[in-house]
Amino acid sequence: MPSLQQTLHKVEGLLYSARMKRFHVITIFPDIVTAYAGESIVARAVKDKLIAIKAYNPRDFLRGKSKNGYRPVDDRPYGGGPGMVLAADPVVRAIDRALSAARKGKRKTKVIILSPQGKEFTNAYAERLVKRYDDVVFVAGRYEGIDARVKTIFRAEEVSTGPYVLTGGELPALTMIDAMTRRIPGVLGKFESLEESRTASPDVYTRPEVYEWKGKKYRVPKVLRSGDHKKIDAWKETRIAMRKKKKGE
What we know:
Alpha/beta knot; 2 domains; tRNA processing; tRNA (guanine-N(1)-)-methyltransferase; tRNA_MeTrfase_TRMD/TRM10; S-adenosyl-L-methionine; EC 2.1.1.228
């Protein structure tokens, strides 16, 4: 028999599912998205119908005849330059398909293009996306990028998860989906929500109290074993401040 907490968690989820968050990922490697969506908290949110995640492969939206059985989704950039660029048409058609159901249901939508030159993704931005939009489309680029007309057509926003360059936009898209999912009511259980709200620490420890490696003993800080939560939180705040100072924040 389910506990009261489990029942309340389920009811909250059902109430929220009337406005289920839907995440759409435009990618030429859809299996990356499918695999991640089947694990951990994200998978549980999908099962509870709190979110839905679907990948769209631009290759499925190509028009015209293939060359020797191969249908490229990219082409050389105008003006010259290294690498190839994802063509506008298959990407536009994939995004349009993703948005078609949202339009019928008059759902609020947002199109995001993952780009190292984009706006920085933060917890505050994740919270804002969750509150404002029902459907979010993530366009995961590859090669040298995506034809700029895609951004113009959908008034898309470029977003970055950090000052670095990756092979593609799939990992940043999944990072954003994970961060947003955790902020949807009903996704995190009571214990997880409590842990989320507590003071985090860059240094964490578990059993055993003393760990020995190559003749040297490494101990858990005494304050963490004290049971005094005020002192523990103060210790964590100090560690956080030290870490920020070290990072130059």
